[in-house]
């Protein structure tokens, strides 16, 4: 055997397609958007000159309002609590649509690159007039943004000045409101805002079959109408729970139907945001899915070491937090039922595009958002946590990150609540599809989720779980599994307070290949003497040296020559090799002391589309 220093290494390589767009100018907002009345926020004075009108149109809500308790801080927190971003809106079918939309597919030949537009609604309270607070109400100023867009409406305006914007693939209308905030005991307790609005919105053409005929000519200068006869009513639950979390709104025109300013009624739907306090207490629904705990699924005794420590909420929040990528839905390869049964996307309502994947769910992603996690210590070293979350499925045709930020509820959304216990490491939740009533009639799904600590050539998920049906009806579905694959540079963030490890299983085969006898070649010997190979550098610690070597072994390269020949497709493959584990190192080490290295990084000798894992031996030839 050659006198060669070597270290065991796991290498992960993968390829994917990079999208190259040739229509980058389509979303230029500087030249194609229309703004009306811009005022600096620092100089903005909020008016309450329509309060008499407000009281007239909002009389029914004032009549049923309860006294605002002075000792309760709900009124003082409404700016932080009662906003929502990227909820859903729809307009009743009629003869008076509110907004036009310019389809980019009519302007570009590569229409397939565009996603389905979203009807989004966002609302913020801009000011609360606490100095003139009444017994049953307080005056407020707010702004509502409605849009049909390929992107998002998630940016709060600098002021409440009404304005209209339009360009290819994006239409946005801002409406300023002033009105009253009240509280009521109706519907189990709700918080209501009744508001009058004013804006500049696009005029329809009354003498044309297409009310937005002007968009074909010059949408940079749309005909605008000023209107202040807009009534908006928003209803919020007094407390947010699993079955009581929906924000509902109605916006209607106070003009007569013969008036060009009239529009058909608009309905708004959203749910609680991250800042709102969630009230756990749906044990009867959780026990329906999770009793007896733990639910005995295929992962309970699957031979994978599961996280059972005191930092579950922190790790879960990091994996699913802001900027985190989606889960990958695992194809239903093991389903042996009918095509209709196996093509179901778990509890979610599958459209034609999803059904056409035949159970592979190619391109479909799953996000876990709006997580509320409360962990508490129990007797001894045991701990438990209560968790609430929203699971949202994103079809391939839609903008994944824009849709992930949505706060609306639909049949592609499951809200969930459940329990996690350190005794098993299983998070078991009940899932409710779409709009949930007080009886929980749509709460017929079970969600089991795990955070693994042991990794191998077959197990590379930092989180995995499944949806299964608790319904005995014919509408049940094959269990839907999901996972999120590990990236080497993310391991430090996800597991800095735990002890993940990699179990090597292919070392003997890799060693046999390395030590395989090769005929002597003078040319090869010269090459090896002249070339330098990555090796473990002399550093303060072995772990630091291995981490630097792992970076040196990382390879990112295009699979095609650069620049691409004209004959090549516009979507070249990108080839990457990343080191997941190197000897005793798992992930990356940033040279920050968090205790004994040997306990931080420990390995034991002992699938996803377009992705391949390798175990090999890294040898130092220099």
TrEMBL record:
DUF2921 domain residues are 54-267, 286-478
InterPro entries given for it? DUF2921_N
Q: Which UniProt keywords apply?
A: Signal
Q: Give the residue range of the signal peptide.
A: 1-26
Q: Does the keyword Signal apply?
A: yes
| Name by which UniProt lists this protein | DUF2921 domain-containing protein
């Amino acid at each position: 055997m050659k006198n060669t220093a070597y270290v065991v290494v796991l290498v992960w390589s993968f390829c994917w397609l990079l999208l190259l767009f040739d229509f980058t100018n389509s979303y230029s907002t500087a030249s194609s958007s229309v703004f009306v009345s811009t005022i600096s926020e620092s100089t903005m004075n909020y008016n309450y000159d329509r309060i008499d009108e407000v009281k007239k149109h909002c009389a029914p809500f004032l009549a049923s309002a309860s006294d605002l308790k002075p000792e309760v801080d709900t009124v003082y927190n409404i700016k932080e609590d009662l906003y929502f971003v990227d909820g859903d809106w729809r307009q009743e079918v009629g003869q008076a649509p509110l907004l036009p939309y310019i389809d980019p597919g009519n302007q570009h030949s590569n229409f397939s690159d565009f996603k389905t537009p979203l009807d989004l609604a966002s609302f913020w309270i801009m000011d609360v007039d606490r100095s003139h607070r009444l017994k049953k109400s307080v005056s407020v100023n707010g702004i509502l943004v409605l849009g049909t867009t390929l992107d998002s409406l998630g940016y709060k305006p600098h002021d409440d000045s009404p304005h209209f914007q339009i360009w290819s693939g994006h239409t946005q209308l801002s409406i300023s409101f002033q009105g009253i905030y009240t509280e009521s005991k109706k519907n189990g307790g709700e918080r209501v805002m009744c508001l009058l609005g004013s804006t500049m919105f696009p005029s329809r053409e009354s003498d044309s079959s297409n009310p937005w005929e002007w968009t074909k000519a010059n949408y940079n200068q749309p005909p605008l109408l000023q209107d202040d006869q807009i009534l908006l009513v928003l209803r919020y639950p007094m407390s947010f729970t699993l079955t009581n979390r929906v924000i509902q709104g109605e916006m209607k025109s106070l003009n007569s139907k013969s008036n060009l300013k009239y529009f058909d009624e608009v309905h708004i739907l959203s749910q609680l945001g991250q800042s709102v306090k969630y009230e756990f207490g749906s044990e009867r629904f959780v026990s329906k899915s999770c009793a007896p705990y733990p639910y005995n699924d295929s992962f309970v005794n699957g031979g994978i070491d599961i996280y059972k420590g005191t930092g579950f909420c922190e790790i879960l929040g990091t994996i699913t937090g802001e900027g985190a990528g989606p889960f990958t839905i695992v194809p239903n390869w093991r389903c042996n039922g009918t095509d209709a049964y196996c093509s179901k996307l778990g509890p979610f309502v599958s459209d034609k595009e999803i059904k056409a994947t035949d159970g592979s769910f190619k391109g479909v992603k799953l996000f876990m958002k709006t997580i509320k996690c409360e962990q508490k210590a129990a007797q001894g070293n045991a701990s438990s946590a209560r968790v609430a979350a929203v699971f949202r499925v994103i079809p391939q045709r839609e903008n994944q990150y824009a849709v992930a930020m949505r706060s609306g509820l639909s049949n592609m959304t499951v809200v969930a609540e459940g329990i996690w216990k350190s005794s098993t490491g299983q998070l078991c939740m009940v899932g409710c599809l779409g709009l949930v009533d007080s009886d929980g009639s749509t709460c017929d799904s079970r969600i089991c989720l795990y955070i693994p600590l042991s990794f191998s050539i077959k197990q590379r998920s930092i989180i995995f779980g499944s949806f299964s049906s608790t319904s005995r009806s014919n509408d049940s579905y094959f269990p839907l599994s999901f996972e999120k694959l590990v990236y080497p540079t993310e391991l430090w963030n996800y597991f800095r307070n735990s002890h993940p490890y990699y179990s090597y299983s292919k070392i003997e085969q890799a060693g046999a290949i390395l030590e395989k006898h090769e005929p002597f070649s003078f040319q090869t010997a010269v090459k090896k003497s002249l070339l330098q190979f990555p090796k473990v550098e002399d550093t303060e610690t072995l772990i630091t040296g291995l981490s630097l070597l792992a970076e040196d072994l990382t390879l990112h390269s295009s699979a095609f020559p650069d620049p691409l020949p004209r004959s090549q497709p516009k979507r070249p493959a990108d080839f990457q090799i990343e080191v997941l584990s190197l000897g005793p190192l798992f992930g990356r080490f940033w040279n920050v002391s968090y205790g004994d290295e040997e306990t931080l990084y420990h390995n034991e000798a002992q699938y996803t589309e377009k992705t391949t894992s390798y175990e090999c031996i890294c040898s130092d030839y220099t």
